Structure formats: C-alpha cells, structure tokens
Amino acid sequence: MSNVATAAVVAPYEKSYLAGLLAFVCFVTLFEGYDLLIINLALPYLGTDFGADSKTLGSAVGLINVGTILAFIPVRLADRFGRRRVFLTAVAGYTIFTLLSAFSVGLYDFVAYQFIARMFMVTEIGVGAIILTEEMPAKYRGAAVTLMFALSLCGGIFGSAIFPYVVDTELGWRMLYIIGAAVAPVLIFYWSRLRETRRYREGGAAEAGVSLIASFLAMKEVFRARYRRRTLAGATIWFTVNAWSSSCMFFFSYYVTNERGWEPAAVSYALTLGYSLAIIGYVTAGPMLDFAGRRLTATVYFSIGAIAAYLCFTAQSVPVITAAYVVVLGMHAVWPIAATITSEIFPTEIRGTANAVVNNLIGRTGMALAPAIVGALSGLLGSVGQAVALMSLIPFVCLPIILLTVSETKGQELEHIHT
To answer: How far is the C-alpha of 167 from the C-alpha of 35, rounded, in Å?
Structure first.
C-alpha cells in the first residue's frame, strides 16, 4: 500500500471547475434533506393508508434504514472504481427508486423501494463528502462539506412548504416521492462533466487490478493497530449521529399529529420555520470547524442537540415544541461535522473503505436500530414523545469516547495529517 503521507500536496483543479463541482454536489444533497423530511411527513398517512400502528411504522422505518448500512458496499467500491463512477451511479439509483416509492401498493413494497433508495442516498452523501474533502483547498474544506449538508436544509424547506398543498391532492403523500425524482435532468447534464478526483487518480487507485473479493478482504486494514483508534473514533461519531438524528427526524410529524393534535398546516409551518432558521446552525458550523477546531465544534453541537431534542419531545406548548425543534434541526450540522472529521483522519488509499466501515457498516446501525427502539419503547411508555426523549440523550453517552479518540486536524493538508 502506498504511503501518501510522504507525497507532495496535489495541485488543485481550476477554480471554475471546483465551483461547478461544489454546486452539483450541493444540489443533489438538497434531495437528501428532502427525502429525510418526506418520510417524516408521510408517516401518519402511510399508517392510515396501509393500516399500520406506531410500532409497525417504527419497525418499517428501522428496516428502511438498514439500507443505509448496505451503503457500505458501494461506498467501499469508491476505492476500487473511483469516486466519480460510484457517485453518479448512486444519484441515478436514488432517483429511480424514489420515483418507484410513489407507486407502492402496500407497506411491504414501499419499504423495499425505500430500502434501496436509502442505500443509494447514503452512498451519494458519503462519496460526495469524500469528493469535496479531496478536492477543496484545506482552509475551506470544513466549510465546503458543511455547505453540502446545509443545502439539504433547502430540500427540507421545500418539502415542508409544499406539504399542505400536496397532501390534499388525489395523489396525497405519493406526490412527495414523484417530486423527489426532479434531480434527473441535472444528473444528465453533469454526467459527462464530473471528473475523477485528483488525489484518487494520482495516489488512491491502487485497487484497480484487484479482484472484488480481495478488495473487500482488504478492509481489514482499517482495523490494524495504526488505524484502530481512528476507526473507534469514526464509528462512535457516526453511531451517535445516526441514532440521535433518526429518532428526532422520523417521528416528529407522528408525535405532534397524534400526541399533540396538530393539523397539517401547523406541522408545515413548524417544519418550514425550523428548516429555514436551522441554516444558522450550519452556517455557524463551517467557520467553527475551520477556526475553533473539530473537537470543540463536535462537543457544542452534540450537547445542545441532545438537550433541545429532549425538551421538544416532552413539552406540551406549541411555541416551546416549535422553538426546540428549530434548534434540533440546526444542530443537525453534526452530519457535516462528522463527515469532515472522518474523511480527514484516514489516508486517501483507504478513505472510501474506512468511511464505509465507520459510517455505513457500523455507524448506520444507529439509524436502523433507533426507530425500532423508539417503536418498542412507545408501546411500553405509551408515548412516542417519551420514547424519542430518552433516545435523544445518547450523545452524552458517546461524547466522552469521541473526545478521547479524536485528534485535531483543522487547517492541515490531508497529506500532512497522515505524516
């Protein structure tokens, strides 16, 4: 395996290409935010249409999120086939299966389509973060990855804004998924324009002639002594982010609709306001990552997010619930914070593999398990809100591990981090 730590810093592409690259990656990420929101919005109506209770819906969402774990496979292949090919395939796959979700005839095929769509969506986000990490100048790297995730909020704003108009149409919640396929024309435009990353071409394509089986067996490199601490750090970060986020995101609409008696217009207002103001959290996270550092930024966002989520899902007052959820959405900047940290701490030749392991294979189990746990706890506690409130405190359990294992990397070129 080559040692990129001794390599010279790779010369960047021209600024005009980098601007277009950032715009394209950010645009497709917008639909990630849209996708996460619409299942939140559709959940009460899926329950009605398919005759499912909260426990069944919790299990369904948990099963859908197993697809995020299987994203380990395509993200892992980014080290073999390149970032460009895997990224474009993921965007195309997500678009197709999101559209198919709109034509589901029952809960089983809806779960199947969303299972695959979620796998491609997470692949898209994971490889997109790697692309920006490898291509953007060091001093803007944290801000670029944060901007990518911030644009997902625009998808949430759009989804929450159209929801009250769409839900009353003949197609109802299905129209949300038809609209989700709108990324197709932009994908066609950029298909021939997106280039392979320079760092992959010049130092990370060592697996090109290796068999697929050998390629997957090579992932044991991530668990060797030299990377073990980094693997523990990355896996802990991603498990925390996934478990906390999925608990808060997927059950908000169900919680306020069924346990607080909100009407669709009130849900739409709260979500539109929340996603609009949550941009502040993302805008703040970028500079904090690049100037205050990765460790401090992670501590602040995890802590505030946990407190706000607990308050949101235990409160009775509409203003308090709304205000707390605005903060929760803003603290979802833990996603770009996690992506920045875990993309930086591994060298180029295993970056795709390492992120597949710590994010998709290990970390995403949090996204699969948390909704099922919420569903089970809601049966015991008699309340989805109380169940989510308990799950929202998980950052306080994992934060000490993160602080003990994550080294500071702000302002360093990737080649220098691994020296």
So the answer is: 16
* pLDDT tens, residue order, the chain (419 aa): 444 344 445 555 677 888 888 888 888 888 877 887 788 778 878 888 887 777 788 788 878 878 877 887 887 788 778 888 899 999 999 999 989 998 988 888 899 999 999 899 888 888 888 888 888 877 777 778 878 877 777 887 787 778 888 877 878 888 888 888 888 888 888 888 888 888 887 765 555 555 556 656 667 777 888 888 888 888 899 999 989 998 888 788 889 988 999 987 888 888 888 878 888 888 888 788 878 888 889 999 999 999 999 999 999 999 999 999 999 999 988 988 888 888 787 877 777 778 778 887 888 888 878 888 888 898 888 899 999 999 999 999 888 888 887 777 666 666 555 55
CA-CA distance, 410 to 419, in Å (whole number)?
A: 15
Angle at 191 between CA 21 and CA 116, to 5 degrees: 95
pTM score = 0.68
Tokens of 374: 């919420």
For residue 325, CA distances in Å to 195, 303, 321 come to 39, 15, 6
Amino acid at 173: W
